[in-house]
Structure formats: C-alpha cells, structure tokens
C-alpha cells in the first residue's frame, strides 16, 4: 500500500479527544462497540483499558483534557477499516507514538477500536 490518507472517522475521533469535550466520541460508537487501549507510560509501566461503552466512559473519565495533541502522520482506509500511525505532543514536545485501528459499521459508527501508545518508540519524519 503506497497511498496515504487521513481516515475521516479517526481524524474526527482524535480531534474530539484533543478538545475540551472529548465525551463527543460517545456519539461516534455503535451499539456493539468494543475497545482496547494499550497505554504505556514507558519503562514497562502500562495499563489496558477495555470494554464496551462503559469501558470507554471509564477511559474518558481518567484522561487529562485538552493537554495532549494527536498528530496523524500516516493513515489508510481499507473498506470499513481505518488505520493510523501518529504521535502525541504535550506543549509542542513529543510524548508518545500511537497506532489506532477502527472498524466501522454501515452507518460509519465505530464498532471496534484498538489503540496502542508508547513513549519508547518515535517514528522520525
């Protein structure tokens, strides 16, 4: 695959996550939504946030709001799947790399979401 695009649903997801009102992502999920967020803080310290809508609500409750900025560096859309590789910054400085994969339903709602992030690996541009 050589074409790169900004997947529209994941772009909106991360725009919402970076805002003062990240709870807007709750309107983007399907009734059968399932997620896993693998969150590494580095040096082997990590947590996994899993579940359905309630799991996402719990994840949102513990997040810092309007602190990190997600930058999508590479993206692809394949049928009902969107994938991205990106990085987060804090005050303009690199904090972590992330991958995100989403499967959408026929209404373009997120059915499945898998996100992994780590400060240990930076993809240089």
From TrEMBL:
InterPro entries: NTF2-like_dom_sf (IPR032710). Gene3D superfamilies: 3.10.450.50. This is SnoaL-like domain-containing protein. It comes from Nocardia callitridis. The lineage of its organism: Bacteria, Bacillati, Actinomycetota, Actinomycetes, Mycobacteriales.
């Amino acid at each position: 695959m050589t074409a790169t695009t900004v997947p529209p649903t994941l772009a909106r997801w991360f725009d919402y996550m970076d805002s003062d009102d990240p709870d807007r992502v709750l309107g983007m999920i399907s009734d059968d939504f399932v997620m896993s967020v693998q969150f590494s803080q580095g040096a082997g310290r990590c947590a996994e946030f899993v579940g359905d809508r309630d799991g996402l609500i719990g994840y949102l409750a513990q997040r810092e709001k309007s602190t990190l900025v997600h930058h999508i560096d590479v993206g692809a859309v394949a049928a009902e799947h969107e994938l991205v590789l990106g990085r987060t910054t804090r005050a303009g400085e690199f904090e972590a790399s992330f991958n995100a994969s989403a499967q959408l339903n026929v209404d373009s709602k997120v059915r499945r979401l898998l996100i992994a992030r780590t400060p240990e690996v930076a993809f240089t541009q």
